[in-house]
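Subject — a protein and its fold
Fields — amino acid sequence, structure tokens
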Amino acid sequence: MSTALDDVRADGHAPTLTDLLRRRALRQPDDTAYTFLHNGEEPRETLTYAELDEAADTRARLLADRGLSGHGAVLMYPSGLEFVRSLLGCMRARVAAAPVQAPRRLKDVERIRRIARSAGTTTVLTETSVLRDLESRFGDLEELLGLTVLDTAELARTAGRDATGGVPGSAPGPDDVALLQYTSGSTGDPKGVVVTHANFLANAAETDALWPCRPDGAVVNWLPLFHDMGMLFGVVMPLWAGIPSYLMTPAAFIRRPARWLEAISRFRGTHAAAPSFAYELCAREAAEGRAGEVGDLSSWRVAANGAEPVRWHVIREFTEAYAPHGFRPETMCPGYGLAENTLKATGSDQDRPPTAVWLSATALGEGRAEPVDALTPGAVPVTSSGRTVPGTEVRIVDPGTSRPCPPGVIGEIWIDGPCVAAGYLGLPEASEETFRARVKDAEGRPEDERTYLRTGDIGFLHAGELHVAGRLKDLIIHQGRNHYPQDVELSAEASAAGLHPNCAAAFAVPDADKERLVVVVEADGRAVRAEGTEGLRTRVAEAIHEHHRLTVDTVVLVRRGAIPKTSSGKVQRRACRALYEAGELTDLAAAPGSGR
């Protein structure tokens, strides 16, 4: 049976995503490619492959006519179909696209300026709704941003069909830049990960090999499309597989998480992806009777779960909550990936339920993965993130010596394979350090000529599968023992009613000759009224001491939404620590009616 890669190779040259789009437009012109769901519910706009191919051509010619081919452009769109049209138009015109979130605050505008400067461009592509919103909130955009802002939807409408019929200049090749995926930049200037067409197609091929998309498949996606996980699952994978993608905004999901599940049921979704906290929100909706009419989830074959350490209890709670709706245990597929590897690196098999290994808490604190019985007091579950597919290799390496870790020792996750991106744009030293690391032998010499991506994440291999323990830079070391912030945060969130998933940040701050443990917790009015601020502090501190034998030096209670998070909803611990150290976190104890 031919694959998507075979389809484009049949044209006689190495493939790119735009080659794949052209092939889809010729072979299945009237099939639905993407549908946007208004409010996460009603189909408002649909694109067929033929319509998308024509729209991408129109935008590509408009960009080429402005001399942008071979240069960069910032893409600033909401999650919708104009983003898809313009992204593929950029790729066809060989414009290195740098997707960003539309700014909500003035400091977001400055971040966009830094990204444009890094990408070497003064051009921002957007659509009418975003442009009007920016003008109303931030005034004269040209003066404020110092950039040229183009409304691609309006330009395409005024250009009409005269803008089609081929794009000037050479077509993109597999080694051309398909995307500049910028990191969060919470602790400094954001870094642009250079993703090539070959990277994209390799990642799509690997993901399809692990979690196959059959002709009857469909993707339902709420993740922001400018984010790596939303991009791959919402845009690239459906195009690769030739199946429809149903898109909704992140806001529609956050306002009512059950909308996502209702859409999967209604449109017979087979593939959907989200971070662990999203499944936790859905499980809580069910537990509190707010899941609505979710319907039948039996069509769902792959519920990819990644972008942060996957919590074992969340898998259990979500699976139990939605089993009556036809959700099968083997549908939950934990995985691991990062933008520097385009996205996916490992994933669990879709034909078996997810697994976890239970570890000795004592050994874990010493940097060892020592399996114990699940009933052992203090045993800690670490979810398997699955395996690689042939062509990609994962190694566990001592970050200090660059030597392979012995079995059972926790170390840094290093990756080699065709999905590893080309590097960071314009940052040769950082690229050399991160993307071209060498594993060393006992004498400190390079093992061989292979180079690896240093992920900055730590974990271990067990039974051939990767288990992620956390982020190397976020590790809390207290009295010579390692503590993983996500475990401390989980204890904080579970300490009192009215606290929510993904609502805590734990980190250490230097203080004279020691480090102090600070835990920031978002609390709603119900929790404050029930416990009072001092009561909540006590609850949080006691729960952390009970489960981790850690003394919390400071518990900061803040309002919902005060903890900084990434575009996909992950807690940004280092950004939160920076706010704490700058005195910019407002403690609820100072608010009227706080309960003090």
